Amino acid sequence: MPDSKAVILLSGGLDSATTLAVARNEGFGCFALTFEYGQRHEREVASARKVAEAVGVVEHRIIDIDLGAFGGSALTDTAIDVPKDRAELIDGGGAVPPTYVPARNTIFLSYALAWAEVLGAFDIFIGVNSTDFSGYPDCRAEFIAAFEAMSNLATAAAAEDEGAFKIHTPIIGMTKGQIIRMGTRLGVDYSLTHSCYDPDRQGRSCGRCDSCRLRLKGFAEAGIEDPIEYRK
Asked: What's the angle, vertex CA 35, arms to CA 95 and CA 16, rounded to 5?
């Protein structure tokens, strides 16, 4: 195993799969962390398992938490519709969409920080993106910088000068097309990934939610065919 360890947040989507490949390419021993957080479908967790196995990680942990207990998101509450064909996705701006899960990245990063401290790792990778994204506030560089600063105040490892925590966001300023081209160069098998917020029972993507449309836009820009199946 490489001397440098890193915790990678792995959702099973193309952004996190690419981020894992970047960390691996940079020589880190990768410890992947996935959450069953009360999301409406299990497909993304299954995809995370496949991606972790294909890329190769030292350890992959799947943690069960229940953000659905609070609701407030179309991804955890079946009473809230997943928006389709949103004009704001094309025009830019607009309100934060109902697919935002309250405090999700704050919670995920906190778990990653706890595991990293136990492992003696000071590098955490997260596949947030603020170029081609749905407008989630916890995907912005300002949030990441604030969490990193907090990490170096809140942990015994940092307080005792064992090291300084770094939150890596290698794709934060890239378009989806750029992400896909880079991931393809790094050998990411995008057929293993899943992006759709509202897949059918067969696991086929809808092609109309924000995540599907951003994914399709990215593959079109990259000039590469999306290898996953969409329902007609």
From this structure: 70
- Kindly report, residue by residue over 90-121, the tens digit of the pLDDT: 555 668 899 999 999 999 999 999 999 999 99
Q: Angle formed by the axes of helices 43-55 and 14-25, to 10°?
A: 20
DSSP bridge partners of 209: 84
β-strand pairing of 166-168 with 59-64? unpaired
The CATH architecture assigned to 5-222 reads: 3-Layer(aba) Sandwich (3.40)
Q: What is the pTM (predicted TM-score) of this model?
A: 0.95
- The residues spanned by each domain of the chain are 5-222
Alpha-helical segments (H) within the chain: 14-25, 43-55, 87-91, 104-119, 141-154, 156-159, 176-185, 210-222
Q: Edge to edge, what strands does the sheet with 59-64 contain? A: 59-64, 29-36, 5-9, 123-125, 166-168
